[in-house]
Amino acid sequence: MRDPKRILEKILGNGQNLDQFEQTGEPLEQLVNFLRDVVKCRRTRQWIADNYGIDMAVSPETFSLLLDIPQINFIENSNRLLEVESISLRETRNPGDPVTVGNLNSVLREFYRNLESIQGRLLNDYPDPFLTGEMRGKWVDSVMEQVSGLKKLHGKLTGYLFNLGKVKTIERDFAERFPASIKAHPLRRTWPTVERELEFYRKCNDMNERWKAIDFDLFQVIREDGLSNLRENVQEMGNLLWKLVYNRKPVERCLDRIGIEFTDTRSVFDADRIELSNI
User: Fold this and answer.
1) Please, which pLDDT band fits residue 172 given cuts at 50, 70 and 90?
2) SS3 of residue 24 by DSSP
3) What would you report as the CA-atom Rg of the chain, rounded to the nearest whole angstrom?
């Protein structure tokens, strides 16, 4: 890097006194690279928000709600005897306490793990699903009722012969809800596959409930074929955060002067607090 001080000026803006960073004796080139990673992390967070309406840089209030998830609530610490203790964050923090970088990493790690699990289930157990392009969480129970209704109307010897009117009504309602899901029609023939597929959608509803604090809609992600992109960007955001943690030590005095604190993720993500240009 030829002139890290000049690049630093472009990233921070003209209002910053750059001499204060040189006076720390810390490497400005590493500071530049660190701030560039902060910008990348912000952009990844914004991409997720723009595409799926999810803000992964969760607020203190949202983080408190996410403590209902055990993998986020419980952390392990070593005591003086090097014994591992499990600590509940719900019992040790106040609802308005800042979200630390470590807190946010636990959120990203668990969210990524859940996305990976649901994607693996979809690819391995339902490689050719019928309804993913149109399904919504609020429809799962009513579709199950339609399938159950068809099963009851089917006679062992006569099939649907004496109940064709009721069958056609169910199929018409089903087709109006899923007009583009061609392979799912007619329902009298496909209901065993649809019934099995509904097990997957129940799992999707379970994940939505688990992550309701961030207003997550897994069905929207699946309808838009965005599961891989979302998972990869959540992973990227987590990787960038850990990279910031790893690279902090050599430039920590410079970061203190800029105002970036790992005890409060708002200092990393809030452009109103710390404005950084993408250079």
Assistant:
1) very high
2) coil
3) 26
Cα torsion angle, 205, 101, 91, 73, sign: positive
Residues 147 and 165 in one domain: yes
HSE on the CB side for 71, CA within 13 Å?
13
Q: CA–CA separation, 133 vs 136, rounded Å? A: 9
DSSP 76-88: EEE-TT--EEEEE
Number of domains composing the chain: 2
Q: Which two tokens stand for residue 229?
A: 């992109």
Q: Reduced to 3 states, what is the DSSP secondary structure of residue 75? A: strand
Structure tokens that stand for 141 in this block: 């129970």
Quick: pLDDT tens for 235-252. Answer: 999 999 999 999 999 999
Angle at which helices 140-153 and 187-210 pack, to 10 degrees?
150
Same domain for 107 and 189, yes or no, is: no
